[in-house]
Amino acid sequence: MTGRGRTRREVLGLAGGAAALLAGGCGGTRERTGELVRSAGPLPEPFTTPLPVPRVLEPLRRTADADVHEVVQRVVRVGIVPGRSTEVFGYGGTFPGPTIVSERGRATLVTHVNELPVPTVAHLHGGHTPADSDGFPTDLLLPAGAAAPPAGAGHGGAHHEDPQHGGPRRASTAGDLAAGRREHTYPMQQRAATLWYHDHRMDFTGPAVHRGLFGLHLVRDEEEARLGLPSGAREVPLLIADRSFAEDGSFRYPALDPTMLATPGVQPEFSEGVLGDVVLVNGAAWPVLDVDAARYRFRVLNASNARRYDLRLSPPPPSGPRFVQVGSDGGLLARPVELGSVRLAPGERFDVVVDFARYPVGTEVDLVNGLGDGGSAQVLRFRVVRRARDDSTVPARLSEVEVLAESAAVRTREFRFSRGGPGQPHWVLGGRPYDPARVDADPVLGQVERWRLRSDVHHPVHVHLDPFQVVRRGSRRRGPWDGGWKDTVDVRPGEVVEVLVRFTDHAGRFVLHCHNLEHEDMMMMANFQTRA
Predict the structure, then answer these.
(1) Mean pLDDT of 52-72
(2) What is the pTM of this model?
(3) Burial track 489-500 (b if 16+ CB lie within 10 A, e otherwise)
């Protein structure tokens, strides 16, 4: 159920740059879709930088039923590689952005302020959100003082010649434009879960996220609080993202237009996806975390543009499970699941517990990537430094999780994710490139549908508005990493994944798309319109 990737090759460098980029395809493995950009200049020594933890964003104010936040998007410089600084687009001026924490049933209002040189669109990934706050790809937040989108960028009816997107760019209906600031309303009528927010601007999601526009958003509730899972300093977010660096410390990304103002897409050699050779966790390269000999809860996010991870502990614990999964994209599982590794595609989240009490004090335990090689095989090092009291538990029953019945599905729809044909963009969904004005499905709120997701190569499929449940991979039942409510599922080469979806509460226009961000930018997206 896997397919071949492209062979390794060398290609010429970034637009406007003189240096060569060595680009590797799938490197002899069939588990990756993407091309490697190699770094130039010195890189950090692995396992010497302490793991940073993104700050929690405090509300500007609290009302009787809502928390009010403001996030300023601006250009900042951060220190990642030795002796040089890296320019990033930072939510709240940090990389990654600050963590927003919400309480179930209490609304969160987030005003985004754009002080960047480019338009943006903020999307709460995994959020059960009204359409006007979801982050539709053409609902642009323009930089302060801008009156219109950049000319030629494919927004608002502009045309430009772009062979990568299939010749002349199609006209599109302008979205809901705002200048300077936009408020998003998140009702938070959803289970406790690990969400994240990131840029979702049509044609330019890949470079925007690559430059730093992503952050974590946690939803908490009383059910989760009663469980006694590891908390406080022993509840640690792990936002994993690969990058490559130029000699001057800047990120290397093979954009056709590095300004992100005109021509979308990447150099053709990188159309399968952009892979970096440095793994960042919470913005630090190959960091280290000192831990107690106790249980830790890790909220793991794959925030990479295209890279997949198969996370393993090396050495494994002398006894007991390596990982105990307690939650997935859409929140808690019904019961904990023991996993030998955590395999996650771009956009997926895993909520897992690791018990370091199984290791002798003084042990160094590496979190490694079984799908990587060289720098991409290393992720993070844990150092078990002390014995400590541990009052946490992992209950045998975690949550009441509704199971959707296959017999309840009122219709079946198929979505085919594939390469484009002659005269089309490189990637298409249902045989057609994305058009923000076209509706490809019209599910009725409250009804269960079966969606068949068909793939040619690896495509992590993300559905907005509501999570789904995976029921089948080909002729087999779902896999070991498919449990619980999901909003992103990795569809492997030549595979059909069947999911049950049910949309509730919010009528309007939403999208589903491949979360390989280069595929998304090259038109692998479709609209669905929910209706009462």
Answers:
(1) 97
(2) 0.92
(3) bbbbbebbbbbb
